[in-house]
Amino acid sequence: MLKSAGKLTVLLVLIMFSLSSAQEIAEEKLGEFQFPFLQPRKLIDCPTAGLLPRGSFDFDIRVYPEGGVTTALEVGITNRLMIGISFGGQNVIGEGSPDWNPDMEFAVKYRFLHESYFLPAFAMGYDGQGYGAYDDSLKRYTYKSKGFYAVISKSYLVGTAPFGLHGGINYSLEDKDDENVPIYVGCDLRINEGLGFVLEYDIATNDDYKGSQYGQGWGYLNFGIQWFFSKNLLLEVDLKNVFKNREDVSTIGREFRVVYFEFF
C-alpha cells in the first residue's frame, strides 16, 4: 500500500513537472513570436482596428523617395486605446538642408468593439500624418493623411497562417482641393514567424480632382513584404502607387520601413 502511494506521488510530481515545463516552453515561444503575430496597426498607409497591447510601444521609421524620412512613436495606453506622434521631412538623407514638414502630427485610436468569433473588431481614430512631400500651396502631403477614420478588421486562419481583412472610411483634413469621403480595403498575411505580406487599396475619391497633379482617379494600390527579423524588429519593403495614380510619376514608388516593438 505504501509502495503504491509512493509510486502515485512520484507520478503526480512528474506530471506536474512536465506540465510546468510545457507551460514555460509555450510562454517562451509565445514571447519569442509575439510581435510577428500581432494584428497590424496599419497596413502601409491605411489604419486597421489593430492595437498595441497595453504597456507597449513601437518606433516606426520610413524612408521614401527624395531622401524623405518619417518617424513615428506609438504607445498602447490600454487594451482599447493607442496614441502616437510623428514627424518627418524631405531631403533628410542626402546633401543640402532638410525640408521639414510644417508640424508634428498626432494620432489616436480607440477600439469600441473587440473581435469575436462572428463579429469584426471596430475602431475609430485620427491620424494626421500623410506621406511624401508636403505641398505648402495646397496644405497637403503627396499622399494625404487619413484624418478621421472608422475601420473594421477580422482575422482568420489560412491553414496555420493568420490572415486579416480590413476595411474603412476616412475624412482627411487635407481635403481643401477635394472633399469626398473615400473607402479603403486591405489584407495582411503572416506566412510564419518570419515572413508576412500586406496589401491595401485606397479608392481615394478625395484625391481625383480633374486637373490635379496628384490623384488621377485610379486610386492607390500599395503592396508590402515584411521580414520579422526578431521578436522586436520588423523590416518591410513597400511598393506604392502601383497604378501610378499621379501625373508626375512614371514608375512605382519604393519605400523601406523599420519598426521596433517593445514593452515598458
Provide a concise account of the structure shown:
By secondary structure, the protein is mainly beta. It contains one helix and 15 strands.
Number of domains: 2
Q: Tally of extended strands?
A: 15
Write down the overall mean pLDDT: 85
Into which percentage range does the β-strand content fall? over 45%
What's the CATH C level of the largest domain?
Mainly Beta
Largest sheet: 12 strands, antiparallel, barrel
Helix coverage percent: 10-25%
Write a structural description.
This protein has one helix spanning 2-32, and strands at residues 56-64, 68-76, 81-90, 99-100, 105-113, 121-127, 131-135, 140-143, 147-158, 161-171, 183-190, 195-202, 220-228, 233-240, 253-263. The longest helix has 31 residues, at 2-32. Helices cover 12% and strands 46% of the residues. It has two domains: 1-32; 40-263, Porin (Beta Barrel), CATH 2.40.160.40. The protein has a twelve-stranded antiparallel barrel. The chain has a two-stranded antiparallel ribbon with strand order 7-8. The termini are far apart. By secondary structure, the chain is mainly β. Residues 1-5 and 7-33 have low confidence and may be disordered. The chain has one helix and 15 strands; from the N terminus they run αβββββββββββββββ.
